[in-house]
Amino acid sequence: MTDFYVYKYLRSKASEHGPAGGPYYIGKGWGRRAFRKEHGVHIPKDKANIVLLSAGMSEPDAHQLEMLLIHFFGRIDRLTGCLRNLTDGGDGVRGRVVPEEERQAISKRGKKRWGSLTENEEREWLQAIREGWAVRTEEQNREYSKTVSQAMTAWHASLSEDEKREWSEARREGLASLTDEEKRAWREALSEAHKEYWASLTEEQKHERGQATRERWASLTEDEKRKWGDALSVAQKKRWASLTEDEKREWNEAAQERYANLSDDEKQRQNQQLHAALAKYWANLPAERRGEAATKYWASLTEEEAAERGLAVKAWHASLTGEQMTQRNEALRAAATKQWANFTEVQLRAWKKAWLLGRANMSEELKRQLAEKNGKFHKARIAGLSPEEREERNAQLHAALLNRWANTPKKIRCPKGHPYDEQNTYINPSNGHRQCKICVRASKARYKDKRPVPNPQAICR
To answer: Is 85:70 a contact under the CB 8 Å cutoff?
Structure first.
């Protein structure tokens, strides 16, 4: 059809939005459209103020001319011009500014309508949305996602704390109502969408997003960081527990494959980042939680897994250079010294008891190997010290022994139960040890009784 036209309405008198004779509405139609009263604006009483700008056009051309003229003259609701049009023209209502009252009314009608649907009607409605999404182009999908994201961000920012809490609870209830298959499908769809979105970003956009994330993290308090970390840990544990053995195996294989495809520089950078993150997490973890986590993790391993872990640790040790091994030993020694200094008396006794129990369960061969290894390590460490370092070490050992001796409670009774008081205590001048006078006298008496009696007849002979 080529009987479409574009028209305009002119002002009969001047107003704050434009002079007399200026346009206040641009429209497109055919037949008697320009002269009908079914309009969002009033029709000029003087028919001379209804002007046909172009006629004999196809509908797409009329749409284009209408949009061009609306953009040229501007709209009053957007504070860009003199027209009373509420949309940008063309087919549909694109660019229309919806008032807040109308938004609330639409939301209320939508909630009421959704609440009245049956389960089959809800399923059909969701299926129709999926089909409509599938027929869109990539550009349309991207534009729609951007619009929805901006609208959601603005809406969430306008909520109060109570409304945000209610929204979060409603979201959790909605997720809890899904079946396992629906949850898995939802996670897979979300993961694929995230991958596609991340792949569409440029390096500069990725850097900006990373910088924004770091700034948000830096703005959090320590309690907020801890709560966020605990919530993420719980979610990851729950997610891992929901996987089957085959899914866990596939995930591990995929992770190993991704790591194998990295370059040496990428592997080194990833290991450094992981090591820094673990060190920071471990430094902020309370001492009691460290022991509990390590004990719980080690107890959860089977004998085969523990053996495999031991072999993996040995292989990793063998791959280290001499310098790396030295750095690692120094770091372990510093960490052990710091941890030992923070132990309470109860923790010290528990640690010593556990160490003695572990040593008692060792075989003689393992004890011998451990003693040889410790002896070699100790000799090598002592041999590597300078005279000044050796003298400082001896002074530290002497001070530690004196401190231990001073803090060691003295015995108030001898092994036989006699008191170590002033009348019954004898100090041996050769070694400084205390001796019980009663026990010394008893020992001399026993020795005297055991001496043989001389035979006078043998002496006379």
So the answer is: yes
With cut-offs at 50, 70 and 90, classify the pLDDT of residue 461.
very low
Mean pLDDT of 210-214: 82
Q: HSE of 37 in the Cβ direction (CA atoms, 13 Å)?
A: 1
- Domain ranges for the chain: 1-116, 126-155, 425-460
Helix (H, G, I), strand (E, B) or coil at 243: coil
pLDDT digits (tens, 9 = 90+) for 56-85: 888 888 888 888 898 888 888 888 889 988
3-class SS letters over 148-160: HHHHHHHHHHCCC
* Residue 337 three-state SS: helix
Smallest CA-to-CA distance from 96 within 120, 72, 77 is with 77
Per-residue pLDDT tens for 234-285?
Answer: 878 877 887 888 888 888 888 888 888 888 888 888 888 887 777 777 777 6
Which residues, other chains included, contact 69 with Cβ-Cβ below 8 Å and sequence gap of 6+?
6, 8, 26, 53, 89
In degrees, to the nearest 5, what angle opens at C-alpha 105 toward C-alphas 104 and 111?
85
| Cα–Cα distance measured from residue 339 to residue 457, given in angstroms and rounded to the nearest whole number | 77
Q: What is the DSSP letter of 410?
A: P
The residue among 77, 66, 78 whose CA lies nearest residue 26 is: 66
**Is residue 1 helix, strand or coil?**
coil
Cβ partners under 8 Å of residue 22, min gap 6: 10, 11, 82
